[in-house]
Amino acid sequence: MEVGKVKLRIYGMTCGDCVTKISRSLLEKQGVMDVNISLQEGLGEVEFDPTDLKPGDILKNHVFSRNSHYRATLIE
Amino acid sequence: MRKEPKRYDLVILGRGAAAFSAAIKGSEISNGEMSIALIGTGPLGGTCVNVGCVPSKYLLEASHRVFMPKHPRIDGIYETIVNHDFSTVMKGLRSYVRDARESKYAEVIRNYNNVTLYDGLGKFLDRKTVGIEDDKGRNVRIVSGSNILIATGSRPSIPNIEGLTEAGFLTSDSLWDIDKLPSSVAIIGGGAIGLEIGQALLHFGSRVTIVEAMDSLLPQTESEIGSALRTLLEKEGMKFYMRARISRVHKYRKKKSVEIITHKGKEKIAVDEVLLATGREPNTKNLNLEVAGVKTDPRGMILTEASMRTTSPGVYAAGDCVSKKLFLETLAAREGVIAVSNMFGETANIDYGSSAWAVFTYPQVAGVGMTENEFSKKNGSCLCRTFPLSNLTKASIMGETEGLIKITVDPKDNRIAGMQIMAPNATDMITEGAYAVRNGYTIDDIIATSHIFPSMSEGIKIAAQSFIRDITKMSCCVE
Question: What residues 296-355 of chain B have any CB closer than 8 A to a CB of chain A?
């Protein structure tokens, strides 16, 4: 099965540590295969196993929860 | 070749209550980072502030201040004629609307640097791209959005009646521009809009005739309320043609002749003005929804899930353009918030079941949850009680005893399934019902909660007590 890909618009990032924190948190989730985040553009690309996850599931991560400093929406 | 679109995180079509609440919510969640395009025609703020709730409530309040002193309800208080100038009242109304629009919408949105306003009609070019047309139909800008929210609202529907266009008519969009009180008005439609405007004009001194196609007023209400309100309005001088329709309107000299068909046959009335209040239709026809894959119901209203997602991924809808039963400013704003919350990966759903609605006649009518019939149809049986305000101390003191409170309860567990109120301040009282329905409170919860004596809201407690005892034999202090 083809690898799933989503693009994220990520809000709240201010430095490289933010990128590391979000990347690590996304990669912890079962099914997430690769994460690439651009601090400058506020964008992220996530590759995932579609047998484990649907695109919307990528946002359901504690790093993007209501209490977090970071929030995200799906672009594609 | 198509111009490269200007990219936004969120494109919102419309700029009324749903659009504003969505734009503000998106800005808050993203801490002002979400780039948002707000596209629309007409004045900022949409229906509610410009031609809906705000001016209609202003007109009603002003009209009551003319009517009430003429009709005192306490012995020893004598009839007083209130001098007034309708034209100045209307100027005041328009000025209030302008100020409200400026302070609640224009100034507010200026504080959000992440929001760009576009004047024009937004039309889908594809699922993610919107063309903006000016008033001459020229495409002036193309924008794209990672997410799109359709919040284009609705407008008064114009029935196909012979001679109507030639004779001229008012709607709830155009009424606010008049300066002279029409001495007689035929209002087509006995729903919330028709009755509110009708009573306001009646209280200022117009002769008002309501022509309604159904056999009862306010079909969403309990039948006791529809008939009690009709009796009261008839006492005030309003005339009703029920199960009736207009076959023809024509103008002669300065008057309009309206031909009404009822089960008794044809009848003609002569009036100064005709006002249409036959419902509203969604502003969805010109949006090119099909290219975006957004589906509508047969009335053109957009189909959504409870998450406000449409049939097209990444496209949401909120407000009066959505297919649903209740069309309220408060609900539109909530739907806007729900849509944006879901864009951010939250799991939020709209709860229509505990949304309170209101009709701002005097007395007011308000409700929440299911009626007796709705609950019985769904569950086979229900328990309900109707408490007349004539048994309520505060209502008797005020001389405002025409109303009632009806509570519908789930017989399985005594939870409040619905509440409807007709009372001078029903729109304030109903919040107790909304809490009860939303949180699953029982009649015991309402009885155990302290209510002020004497107050109108005490009526809700007594209505709840009527499930467990005969309240006609109850002292006013029994808990």
Answer: 314, 343-346
Query: B334 in a domain, yes or no?
Result: yes
Q: What share of chain A is helix, strand, coil (3-state, %, to 5)?
A: 30, 35, 40
Q: Which residues form the domain of B178? A: 164-278
Which residue in B330, B329, B349, B331 sits closest to B339, CA to CA?
B349
Rounded percentage of chain B residues whose pLDDT exceeds 90: 95
Same domain, residue pair B348 and B371: no
Angstroms from A22 CA to nearest CA on chain B: 15
Q: How many domains does chain B have?
A: 3
Q: List the single best residue of B315, B346, B347 to mutate versus A (max A Cβ within 10 A).
A: B346
CB contact under 8 A, B344 and A75: no
Check B345 against A42: CB less than 8 A apart: no
Let me know whether B101 and B120 are in one domain: yes
Q: B9 CB near a chain A CB, below 8 Å?
A: yes
How far does Cα A2 stand from its chain's mean position?
A: 19
**Is-contact B359 B317, C-beta < 8 A?**
no
Residue B140: pLDDT over 80: yes
Q: Is residue B220 assigned to a domain?
A: yes
pLDDT value at residue B390: 95
State the pLDDT at residue B2: 63
Q: What local confidence, expressed as pLDDT, does residue B477 receive?
A: 65
Domain containing residue B450: CATH number: 3.30.390.30
Indicate the residue of A9, A12, A61 with minimum beta-carbon distance to B31. Answer: A12
Relative to beta strand B36-40, strand B139-150 is unpaired
pLDDT (0 to 100) of residue B374: 94
Point out which residues pair with B144 in neighbouring strands.
B7, B129
Give per-residue pLDDT as tens, A4-58. Answer: 999 999 999 999 999 999 999 999 999 999 999 999 999 999 999 999 999 999 9
Please check whether residue B34 touches A, CB under 8 A: yes
Do B229 and B249 share a domain, yes or no? Answer: yes
Helix boundaries (H) for B169-260:
192-204, 223-236
CB contact under 8 Å between B30 and A71, yes or no, is: yes
CB atoms inside a 10 Å sphere around CB B84: 15
Residue at B272: amino acid letter: D
Looking up tokens 């209505």 gives: B463
Question: Could you say which of 1.10.3720.10, 3.30.70.100, 3.40.50.720, 3.40.50.2300 is the CATH number of the domain covering A4-74?
Answer: 3.30.70.100
Domain extents for chain A?
A: 4-74
Task: Select the residue from B25, B28, B114, B146 to test the A interface by mutation, using most A Cβ atoms within 10 A.
Answer: B146
Give the residue from B12, B31, B344 with the most A CB atoms within 10 Å of its CB, the best one to mutate: B344
* pLDDT at B373 exceeding the cut of 90: yes
Tokens representing B411? Answer: 């017989």
Residue B212, pLDDT above cutoff 70: yes
CA atoms within 13 A on the CB side of B372: 12
- What's the pLDDT at B470? 80
CB contact under 8 A, A9 and B31: no
B7 contacts in chain A (CB < 8 Å): none
CB-CB neighbors (< 8 A) of A42 in chain B: 33
